[in-house]
Specification:
The complex is a heterodimer of chains A (about 280) and B (about 300). Chain A has about 280 residues and is mainly alpha-helical. Chain A folds into 2 domains: about 55 residues, no CATH class; about 210 residues, MetI-like (MetI-like fold). Chain A has 13 helices and no strands. In chain A, helix 7 packs across helix 9 and helix 8 packs antiparallel against helix 9. The longest helix of chain A is centred in the first third of the chain and has 32 residues. The two termini of chain A are about 40 Å apart. The relative contact order of chain A is 0.13. Chain B is mainly alpha-helical. Chain B is built from 13 helices and 2 strands; from the N terminus they run ααββααααααααααα. Chain B has a two-stranded antiparallel ribbon. The radius of gyration of chain B is 26 Å and the shape is globular. Classes of the chains: A mainly alpha (about 280), B mainly alpha (about 300). Chains A and B meet through helix 1, helix 4, helix 5, helix 6 and helix 7 of A and helix 2, helix 4, helix 5, helix 6 and helix 7 of B.
């Protein structure tokens, strides 16, 4: 009765409006990014340029100082990811495998801090960083990113850690392995995929973050990628849209590709973390 | 070996016990210190600032009888921003969930290209809101934007519309894009709920003659209820706080017609130097969020109990 080809066509037909709206901005990015400048501001605008100008990317890279911004973003994102994991893994280990008074309280504390968004606290955070002399310093951003990812990371990691059977560690304990050995040889290898997925989420958060970067950074040479791209648009009379679209492509495509490749494990990771 | 180990453990009971009792606290301590330092202190600082007279450089003076709160609530823009925040949140969250349920149902079916469909629908999640906002701002440009061009090509439009510069279209457009970027996360969670359902129950209902709609209404919907509750609360919190889209696309313009509380808060704090009002607003929003979070925590804990 059910014809799989007909069913597939029907499913795609239902999804098509959404698929079009999702792909539309990507099409706009590509189309504008490779247009010669005169055609960018031509009326009526057209999807297909007269020539595909890849030189735009080279020009953009120099004119918009995107290189240093990419470096800053990489630096901040990697540092924040590593630091966040270093703080979160022990906490998640304790929250998932140890019995202690106040464990429930700690988990509630995590849930509450997870909900706080930077924008509501941004004024206070700015003042804190100013007091510590960290304004316009990349470490300020790293500290803030760690703080805003901690609860989520601990929460997600502990949900995963619960699925790793305790019996393996207990068996190793009977065989005389020390705590450190048990952690290094048994627990961490089993937990590695979970840690990897959490790391990807933290990294993407940092890579894409905007409010804190805009508030805490001042000088253009400290800008992260999102901030630098925004500065090409915000508060300007003449926006060079071909450069802007090339920059958004460069900023978005790597993350989108990582996301697409890891889609299955990221999604299953999140459902373990978010729902459980 | 085993006996030796047992003896060895038995020999140092007190040491071992102390180590074991304090170990979990040592392990969670860094995360707690971090949270108190970077999140707790700013909250305290803003709460303190909100009940004192404060100049535009952030120097606090005497306690001022909640004058900052009075000025906030009587500010001519406050009610407008509050109402827009509610409209924004309700429409984006409502629209997102209404669209996400059927999408998740479709993606839960088996069909050719399902993996590709899932990847495409998750795509907006990976791109930062800032970039999404920038690209849409360009696409919606009245003269050179591809939205007008495409609508005109299909004969749906006679004269180009300046979508983001017209007060009647700017806010609905922002809401639509807000929905678009909230769909991936919502679909993901609902899909997680759908995949936990057992097929035999549905087979049984089918054999008993339940129609597709009946199965959805009386089986699927109640069973994914806990997941819907969670996406509703989480989305409510996310959307309530959503800043980059509006900031990048309109900055609250034209004439504050797209300002919501968060964008107004940013302007108060960093553009107008109204630190007293800004800190009062931050605290008000923090309390609203706290209330929402308690709802969420209750839901999450209840789920955890039922699945454990």
């Amino acid at each position: 009765m059910e014809n799989p080809v007909r069913k597939s066509l029907l499913m795609w037909l239902f999804l098509s409006p959404l698929v079009i709206v999702i792909l539309f901005p990507f099409a706009v990015m590509v189309s504008t990014a490779v247009k010669p400048r005169v055609e960018v501001l031509m009326y009526p605008p057209r999807w297909f340029p007269s020539e595909i100008r890849l030189q735009n990317f080279v020009d953009m890279w120099q004119a918009t100082r995107l290189g240093p911004a990419v470096m800053n973003s990489l630096l901040v994102s990697i540092a924040a990811t590593v630091l966040c994991l270093l703080v979160a893994i022990p906490a998640a280990y304790a929250a998932s495998r140890m019995e202690f008074t106040g464990r429930k309280l700690f988990r509630q504390f995590l849930l509450v801090t997870q909900m706080l968004s930077p924008i509501v606290l941004v004024l206070g955070i700015f003042r804190l960083m100013a007091k510590m002399g960290f304004v316009d310093q990349l470490p300020a951003l790293v500290l803030a990113y760690v703080a805003f990812n901690l609860a989520f990371s601990v929460w997600m990691l502990q949900a995963y850690f619960q699925t790793i059977p305790k019996e393996l560690e207990e068996a190793a304990k009977l065989d005389g392995a020390s705590t450190l050995q048990r952690l290094r040889l048994i627990f961490l290898p089993l937990a590695a995929p979970a840690i990897g997925i959490t790391a990807v989420f933290i990294f993407i958060y940092c890579w894409n973050e905007f409010v804190l970067a805009m508030t805490l950074l001042r000088s253009p040479e400290k800008s992260t990628l999102t901030l630098q791209t925004f500065s090409l648009v915000g508060g300007r009379y003449q926006v060079e849209w071909d450069h802007v679209m090339a920059a958004t492509l460069v900023a978005s495509v790597p993350v989108a590709v990582i996301f697409a490749l890891l889609q299955r494990s990221l999604v299953s990771g999140l459902t373990v973390g978010a729902v459980k | 070996m085993g006996v030796g180990g047992a003896v060895h453990r038995a020999k140092t009971p007190s040491n071992g016990k102390i180590g074991r009792a304090s170990a979990p606290y040592l392990l969670i301590l860094p995360s707690i210190l971090f949270a108190f330092w970077i999140i707790g202190y700013p909250i305290y600082d803003m709460a303190n600032m909100s009940v004192h007279a404060v100049n535009r450089f952030g120097k606090t003076a005497a306690f001022n009888d909640f004058a900052n709160y009075q000025r906030l609530f009587s500010h001519q823009l406050f009610i407008g921003c509050l109402i827009r925040t509610l409209v924004w949140t309700v429409f984006v969250v409502g629209g997102t969930v209404l669209l996400s349920v059927p999408i998740a149902l479709i993606l839960n079916e088996k069909f050719f290209g399902r993996t590709l469909a899932r990847i495409i629908i998750m795509l907006p999640w990976a791109v930062s809101l800032t970039m999404t906002g920038i690209v849409w701002r360009w696409s919606l440009n009245g003269q050179f934007g591809m939205v007008n061009a495409t609508l005109a090509n299909f004969g749906l439009q006679d004269t180009p519309v300046e979508w983001l510069a017209t007060s009647t279209t700017a806010f609905p457009i922002l809401i639509a894009i807000g929905i678009l970027v909230s769909i991936p996360f919502t679909v993901t969670v609902i899909l997680g709920g759908l995949s936990s359902l057992q097929a035999d129950v549905f087979e049984a209902a089918k054999i008993d003659g339940a129609s597709g709609w009946q199965r959805f209404r009386y089986l699927t919907l109640p069973l994914i209820r806990p997941f819907l509750n969670i996406v509703l609360v989480l989305n409510f919190i996310y959307v309530f706080n959503s800043f980059p889209l509006i900031w990048v696309m309109t900055q609250g313009d034209p004439a504050n017609s797209t300002d919501i509380l968060v964008t107004w808060l940013y302007k108060l704090a960093f553009r107008y130097g109204e630190l007293g009002i800004a800190s009062a607003l931050s605290i008000v929003m923090f309390l609203i969020l706290l209330a929402l979070t308690i709802v969420y925590a209750a839901l999450a804990m209840r789920n955890e109990r039922s699945t454990a």
